[in-house]
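Collaboration report, partner site 2.

Our partner group contributed sequences for two proteins of shared interest, and the home lab folded both. The records are reproduced in the order in which they were received, starting with the first partner submission.
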Amino acid sequence: MSSKPQALTSTGPMRSFAANSKKISTELIEINESLLGFNKFVTEYYKQLAETWNDAQKKVNLKAPEVPQDVEQIEAFKRIWIDIFDNDFTELFDSNKFGENYGKLVSKELELTKHWNNITNVILQSVNLPSKEEIDEVYKELHSLKKRVMKLEIEVKKKKERRENDK
């Protein structure tokens, strides 16, 4: 093997990895684009939650301006707080604006996951390791074989019992 660093990319897994580096670069560029969109939607999500919280707290402060002194006042304050927050957050979660933003947020999150899975698969392929899908396939087959063996064992046991009873 050569002592030159560039020779590393011509041997073993590094050769495959170097060949697949364009796929990884493309995925990273797409991840950055998805991440920008995700950050926009997550910022809007928390903005909506914070605004609703602030508005609800202002309503509670107007409705119950005094600091509760005894147990009854604390319970009354708690009921007011729960009612106002429940109504305001239910209204938020039922709004079209929140629903649209949350849908886009989840969509971007799924896009990011897809890109990370693609990068992982390229890297695994480069080092001759199975992908998650291939491992899942093996697990399904293994599960199927276990069920089949169990059924066969039960059948063998029943046949043995029949033979013993016939004697």
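Second partner submission, folded after the first:
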Amino acid sequence: MTDERRYDEREVGLILRRVAELQEREGGKGDERGLTRGEIEEVVTELGISRALVARAAADISLQDLRNRPSWRLGGKTDLMFEEVVGKIDESLHTRMLEVLRRHLGEPGKLQREGGALIWSTGESGRRIHFTAVEHAGQTTLRLEESMHSAAVGTVGLSGFAGGFLGFMLMVPLKALVVKSLLLLLMGPLVVVGVMLGWLIGRLTWKRSAQAREEMLRRAFTELMTVAAEARKPPVLAAASEPDDDAE
């Protein structure tokens, strides 16, 4: 009989996640062919994990990949979403999590409940950020997301318009240098070039803005996960003092 330690499902999941993080950090390359969903189900079955969870995890990853995908036309991401499943959380933990969000985002936000979901949303900063906590079967799904499409379109669109306007205004100094007929021929290309340059500048501007927003949301979500993990830790009991052998 072996004395090797056995890990429960939660610990197995944490170990596998940590292995993946170390693999990515150290630049190691696994099998480039990857695994099919059926092959993944066979692996998790050997680990004693339900096959049904594979389908749910695959759907969650597909959704996050879709939401976090950058837009080539706008130069950066237009949606952000971070999601994690943790154990059951109580009201005091909800309150601690909301304080984390308020500290990172700099506003009190608005809290509401819909069915079994707790939803916190920003309202004053102009950013559309939502934090949702949904309990199901003893587990809680935490999701932090931001919709940035309107901000992205506004940034790139305004930059393109400004570029086109500046291209048009170049006709003013050129008026004294070229004849009127040639100036009219140059008007279209000048505006088009201005719009293109404005679009490129707008894409670069939005890319940097989206990256800054994502980093802020990532820091907030990381701290939320830290708070949730600390709450699940069992309390440390003080060691009982041993009786004094000399005591009578």
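Feedback sent to the partner group on the second submission included the following. The helical segments are 9-25, 37-46, 52-67, 91-105, 149-169, 171-174, 180-232. Residues 152-204 form one domain.
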